[in-house]
Design brief:
This protein has helices spanning 6-24, 30-51, 58-71, 82-93, 120-123, 147-154, 211-224, 242-250, 296-306, 356-361, 375-381, 432-445, 447-450, 455-461, 467-476, 483-511, 516-526; strands spanning 78-80, 95-98, 101-106, 109-115, 131-135, 138-139, 161-168, 173-180, 182-185, 189-194, 199-204, 229-233, 258-264, 269-273, 284-289, 311-314, 322-328, 334-343, 398-400, 406-408, 417-418. With 527 residues, it is of the alpha+beta class. The strands form five sheets. Strands 3, 4, 5, 6, 7 and 8 form a six-stranded antiparallel β-sheet that branches. A six-stranded mixed β-sheet has the order 10-11-12-15-16-21, sandwiched between helices. Strand 13 and strand 14 form a beta hairpin. Helix 8 runs parallel beside helix 9. It is globular, with a radius of gyration of 26 Å.
Amino acid sequence: MNKNYLPIYFAIATAFGIIVGYFFSGNTARFSKVSAHEQKVKRLINFIQRDYVDEVDTDQLLDGAIAEMLTKLDPHSVYIPKENLQAVTESMQGNFVGIGVQFRLIKDTITVIHPMEGGPSVKKGILAGDRILMADEDTLFGKSLRNRQILKRLKGKPSSKVKLQVYRKSNDSLFDVTVKRGKINIKSVDVAYMLNDSVGYIKLDRFAQNTYREFKTSLDDLLTKGMTDLVLDLRGNGGGFIHIANKIVDEFLEDDKLIVFTKNNGGETVESFATEKGDFEEGGLYVLIDENSASASEIVAGALQDNDKGTIIGRRSFGKGLVQEEMDLGDGSAVRLTTARYYTPTGRSIQKPYNIGLELKNPNALRNSVNYGDEVESRYRNGELFNKDSIKLIDSLQYETPKGKIVYGGGGIVPDVFVPIDTTAYLPAIFFTPMNEFAFNYVDNHRRELNELSFEAFVNDFDKEGEISDEFFDKVKDKRISSQTREKLRKLLKINIARELFNDEGWYRLNHLDDNMIKQVFELEKK
């Protein structure tokens, strides 16, 4: 924000802060007081517009003031500007209207990485590797367009049409195709497949409106393939809708088991229970979590752990136990406001500290010795990601499950089986961009023969002699690569090529061959 705006910005933010203070106090006349302070803010804005020495964008000031005000409440109450609301809504709803392609901008040209199954582009014959040069009269190549500018031309209203000019490298052809835009599903289940004859695997990316439907389809499919035990991977899953998390937990818990309960500022409690609908109540279950598993992911892990169902594997989860509700501000923007806390069946709050009570009573108080947003990074520094004994547990927040297992509240879900972070998988960032480019170019130049390979043949036979990875090393021209790093790069290059060729499933399945949490599952299976 322009530095000239700062005094005005903080004045407006302070005025809004006064409103918040009155609104959340117990004063019986709070609504009349809010009205009076609303008038104060309006007058201030009028003074700025009429009398301030420089021209000021008051919309920008208000956006900044609202965002600043919400930071005084908690870390998860946020302002969503109108220009961002559509993308946020699409992500949570799990769909958007467009032509249905995953693309990447390669050398200033929109390149189709994967046409989405069943989408409008697949129906019109668009293939991976095709270059989209024009959309209607708009030239899309050679312009260094940003993703938002590209999406604006490819997205649109349902059933609207866009004429694309496409270049296909595999046969050096240029053609036009008209695509009718349709509703495109944003995947929640990244991948679902059988790890072996009896153990299935489902990776959940989010808890959007369409997540349960996708999850149930995947679960049913794996059951038909003989699955008796399931690995539910919630690593990196930042959460989403609570009611979707409840429906997924319901598949695993017996009738009438408590899943979660919420409590608002008036003390009103809402409980959610499992029903008779569960289709995997008797199956074995492993849930994978890490330091980036949050919110709805923690509801799932907490509900299962507190009901002695399955085994939670990994590292302590993020620690977000607050419920947000999206509220429309009337101008295309919205706020996502915290309206309740949620608790696991044993009564645990897993929200990590952020000192909201202290903050409101004493505005000058320090928020925390560790900044809330940097808390996960601090776990790396204090050794928690490497050693379970480094997790700081609070005895006063100790709870007991029905079978006598001790669990803890106060900040995330502590797993039943700890798996340290694998630092041996880390590689210098300088390799990532050239490796991604090499992987794409290799597949792009050998697409015909590679498309003949099954996944199993790719895993067993591709680059057996290391000639392709050697070609990559020649391009990198870094003679300082150690033999250990070189071996990691060979594996990662093959994984990246698998992603280009087999999409997400190829990437995950190859990664799982060296995944320590998956290895831990099989160790437990042996027992």
